Amino acid sequence: MPKKLQTTKPLPPKGWVVSETFQLSPQVTLSKGDDCRIKGERGKFLFLRHVWNTNNNSEWVDLWGGSHGHGQWRSVMIERLKHIPKSRSRKKKEPRPQK
Asked: Is residue 42 part of a domain?
């Protein structure tokens, strides 16, 4: 008989407060899937979650990504996190009238 696959996410350890959003600055709120960078490292990362451990009063963010083709899970302190602004779309220029 095949093993039954686990269909629910495991619960975080006792004392952890997990959030899928994080207020990086007064103007910037990261939510799950937003691009960000780690100071001192190459590549882009996707924000996954913010974790606060109430047992030892530490907090960090979990990210996924890195150099192209070498994605990896990273947990970093908040001080090392940099936000990548979303690119704005340019307005299309209207064609000039012919003389």
From this structure: yes
Structural domain contains residue 5: no
β strands within the chain, DSSP E = 16-19, 21-23, 29-31, 35-38, 44-53, 58-66, 72-77, 81-83
Under the banding of pLDDT at 50, 70 and 90, the label for residue 6 is low
Whether the predicted pLDDT of 86 surpasses 80: no
Domain span at 64: 16-83
| 74: region left, alpha or beta (phi > 0 left; psi from -120 to 50 alpha) | beta
Is residue 57 included in any domain, yes or no?
Answer: yes
